[in-house]
Amino acid sequence: DFHKGRLPMLKVRLARFGNKKRPYYHIVVTNCGDKRDGRFIEQLGTYDPQKPMAEARVTRDRLNYWLSVGAEPSPTVAKVLREHERAMAAVAATPAAAPAAAAAPTPATS
Prior knowledge:
Order of helices and strands: EEEEHEHH
Number of helices: 3
Helix content: 25-40%
Largest sheet: 5 strands, mixed
Number of strands: 5
Radius of gyration: 21 Å
Strand content: 25-35%
Strand order of the largest sheet: 4-3-2-1-5
């Protein structure tokens, strides 16, 4: 009866997958009392700490939905989301890399 009339508290957190010494994480929404790698409500993305942050996948519209209904991100997920947003902004700000041959002028031959 502790949660009488209330929804259980929701968390957005990391669930660990992968092998020993090679972690790979799923960003999931879960009830706060569930185990780290246990049952979850929805998977929102993936995060591999051994790859660049821009390669992390996050479904932003679903993340925004869960945050709007009261789900709280764990401190680690909040950090991952901030860094992912920063990395995606940096990728969007850099112009598309042109092939080196097209960018360099060709020397005139006589």
